[in-house]
Amino acid sequence: MRQEGSLARTHEQEPGLPRGRASLPADAVRAAQRERLIRAIIAASAENGYLRVTIADVVQRAKVSRAAFYAHFSDKDDCLLEATLFGRRLLIGHITAETRALPAETSAEESLRVACRAFLRFLTDEPEFARVFYLELPSAGPQAITRAIEAQRQYAHLNELWHRRARVQDPSLPDVPPEAFAAAVGATTELVRSAVHAGRTRLLDLEDALVALHLALLAGRPWQTG
After folding, report:
1. CB neighbours of residue 38 within 10 Å
2. What span, in angstroms and rounded, lies between the C-alpha atoms of 210 and 205?
3. Separation in Å, CA 68 to CA 15, 31, 73
């Protein structure tokens, strides 16, 4: 599989971290090792499936030692969980940056569209991370369920913040229960997971569907077709 996203860019064809007089400060070495391992497990899991990945595969791609792996992670599951958390934080930061850059007079619907587009753009640009997060993460033991629920709660909170601002602009919008925010996340997750599983690379094609979905659940808008 050709590596396309930056989160799956590994160092197999590059030298290891410099040693001797050219060595980096200890903190910089640890940070570089951790980042290499995170990228390596995303790349390996996307290419071969997480259950087939070994720690030997990860350290080989990262060009670090097995001892360095265990200095950062307790086991393979821990590494994948931290890698997906790292990617999720980047994704949330991307969405937040895109929406905060909008002019104050931007309509609630346009703000929602920008957020959906930013979400889908990130996943389109990081296809290996998308595959790992939506298809491989459940294989990483019981804690993976907890992490998935944490992610859904975080996205549901973003929906709640959008709805709160939208009602300031348009007080006629309906009040909705917390379950609606979670339901929008769940539906989004299934749409994206299905597309990733089918091998679709242009997740941006889901933009209109996601906007319509959120407006239907959170703003009482009829689903526009055609």
Report:
1. 24
2. 10
3. 16, 11, 9
Tokens of 122: 């990130």
pTM above 0.90, yes or no: no
Alpha carbon distance 43, 94 (integer Å) = 21
Joined tokens for residue 165: 């601002």
Cβ atoms of 46 and 135 within 8 Å: the answer is no
- Cα maximum dimension of the chain: 67
Residue 21: pLDDT band (50, 70, 90) is very low
Q: Where are the beta strands (DSSP E) in the chain?
A: none
Amino acid at 50: Y
Calpha distance 12→25 (Å, rounded): 23
Whether 105 has a pLDDT exceeding 60, the answer reads yes
Name the DSSP class of 136.
Answer: I
Query: What gap in Å lies between CA 139 and CA 77, rounded to an integer?
Result: 8
**CA distances, 83 to each of 7, 136, 140 (Å):** 9, 12, 11
Residue 24 Rama label (left phi>0; alpha psi -120 to 50; beta): beta
Angle at 184 between CA 142 and CA 171, to 5 degrees: 140
Residue (of 110, 112, 115, 86) closest to 98 by Cα position: 115
Q: CA 161: distance to chain centroid?
A: 19
Which single residue is written with the structure tokens 């390596």? Answer: 40
In this prediction, residue 17 has a pLDDT band, given cuts at 50, 70 and 90, of low
- Cβ–Cβ < 8 Å for 3, 42: no
